[in-house]
Amino acid sequence: MKSKTKKHSERKKMSHTWKHDRAAENIDKRIKDVESVKIVDYVRDTDLESIPTAKAYKVDGVHLYADILNLEDMLHCTDFEGETCHKRTLRFLNQHFRAVDRILNKTDAKRVDFHNQRLHALISKPYNTQTGAEAARVNRAVAIAQLVIDVLKQTGDSDEHIPDAKVRVGIDSGRALAVNNGRNGYREPLFLGEPANQAAKIANGGASGIFLTNAARKAIGLDSLEQPAKTALTREEIEACQDKAALDVTAQTIVSEWEKDMENNPIGAFQFSRHTPPFRTMDIPSLTPANSRRQEAISIYADIDGFTNYVNRHIDDRPEDVVKALHVIRAELERVLTSDFDGRRIRFIGDCIHGLLCEGTAQTTDIEETIRSGTLCAGALRSSFDLALEKLGDNGVDTEGLGLAIGFEYGFMAVSRLGIKGGRVRCAVSRGVLASEREQMGCTGVQTAIGQAAYDNAPDEIKKLFGSNRKKSDLDYDAANAGQAEQTQKAESRQGGGLLRSAAPAAAAGGFSFPAKAAGPSKKPASFA
What we know:
Alpha-Beta Plaits
């Protein structure tokens, strides 16, 4: 029987490449999935967990984003990014997630997503059929936000070196499209449009407190501001919202129930083991605190740039185009990550995909090959994105203004699930995860950025490809592959390679361009020791 390492090596010869025809075939299939899209108004308590692929709801609601501001501090609670800081960070997120989830359940709010430090929730009741519905929703959102802040001031654990959470909340109100988020048994609603996006933006960064967009402020009779992200609600304004919302639960009740829940269902110690590459085979649904993963890998974010404006243009005119574009693009990006490059999707975050990939063995990550894989995968994502836009256009779908911003970084990655059995959410967190997201957020729709650690550990051909500013425009698969192959060939020529050596780069130009050397873990030390 062939060893797992040999099987992966043989698979890698067939994968780790991007093929136009293969991508085109898959995109055509995904376009057929959404040939006929149905758009309906959300007017009652409809199940949004299992929205069909070719259906979307127009939802009038209030979107709440709660951002835990001290996650970065937790990841730097030790100078060295070892197991200790990852265990503390996961426990920090787990404790606070369980408290916030209890709040949402008690207040009839919908948890949309919990991605590391960010919670996204929807308040859809009362529906628009009732007088003053929007104002009632905003008042309720503010009351829930203050409840979150008050509870998370009490859910730390000094014995476990877990601090209370510092929270900033952003709230916006308006109409969004609810579609299916996820694939293959991991499905949840995703809300597309201005209110979800603006709530996330106003919650991002800065001081703690509750911040409302002008649309939300207007709904409850507050004056508009030139810079609403810089002015938190006053104590008096919050109390007025709380009085009108009249929540039937208090912070002390939530904390008492949370403490009892933690006693009856303790988190347990986080224990890490390595996953034998490829990451594609990682069984995330089976992970628990005692069965978590941790090793050096690439974290990659690919975000559809311009998508919020795109949704705003089409939500009333051609909302079907939004559903078609999102489904086709995200399905193809996931296929490239998982099928072409043996990576693992962690989750879809709105119109963004987050994934991990790793090359090496169960014992050792091959640093240079992992970064090469990440570079080629980034190029392939852009090639597939461009092809998807072309084919969507051929099928009458408007995609004007859409781009793809990509960022990736290398480092230790911790992967687990938070919560209790039956309600756990997946989580991948580390300094490298946060850095890869920052790199993506700093890109335009034509740029790809490589993180500092990945750049420092990359072979010379990749450093030259990205340049000293660590960004590259229009880096598709052909450009990424050609750049690596060219530099490898030059390096081998300087070494005086014979006919066999000089032939290797030419063969690699059609596939994955590894230098001609024996397979095995790189001995080059990582910057994350």
